[in-house]
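HUMAN: Mind making up another protein with tokenized structure?

ASSISTANT:
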Amino acid sequence: MWILFAFGSALFAGLTSILVKCGIRKTDSDTATAIRTIVVLLFSWLMVAIVGSAPTITGLSAKTWVFLILSGLATGASWLCYFRALQLGDVNKVVPIDKSSTILTIVLAFLFLSEGITWLKGAAVVLIAIGTFLMIEKKAVTGNKAERKSWLVYAILSAVFASLTSILGKVGIEGVESNLGTAIRTGVVLVMAWLIVCVKGKQHTLKEVPKKELGFICLSGLATGGSWLCYYKALQDGLASVVVPIDKLSILVSIAFSAVVFHERLSKKAALGLVLIVAGTLMMIF
């Protein structure tokens, strides 16, 4: 059953990338992150209420709290970097780099969770690494020189923080109902996101968000909520080194919709890279 939850996470995560891109054309990416986190938080606690796991919060250990909070901080950092990268770059270039967090996650799972690395899994990592490299192309954007290069930096940082999120989340949800764990982490992300907005003095941008983009931001929050609930249920019952690669298949959803919605096209080199990433991911699963 956890395999199905992992695939559900991939579907919703793929939709999230497109909805976010639609919602940050004119809206500041930090502000968008803060707004959508409210939606995710409400969605998460609704699920906690449905399954009735709220009373168990008093029984959580100090270790669980620490790792849930750390996982939330890593998630917040990953989101902020990811949305900024999406705002500056194309979906079909940013998403593959973000999904390369699979490689670091597998290494960390081996080091800290004692999840083995077989020759097949090693070969899959190589394919994913090569595929990601092939999909990294120069993105022509308007703006100063720093902005033209920064989308790649933000995308890489997003991948690093995403891998840390997976490992910290795996440890943090041991002994806690997955929906409750998701809700707690989302609360941490919410506080972090709004602190960033306040520290950067971007409160005024809230009034400047177009209604249409606000709708897309809220929808992306719902998609993220669905992805998280599926992801952490799968992570709780399955292996992190298998759940994470399945979740990364969301790249297919994102790139397919980016072609339809934004008319973004893959070059032959990037298309080959995508094939290698998918092949490596499928090898991970089986």
Remarks:
- The longest helix spans residues 145-172.
- The chain has twelve helices and no strands.
- The chain has one domain: 2-285.
- The mean pLDDT is 85.
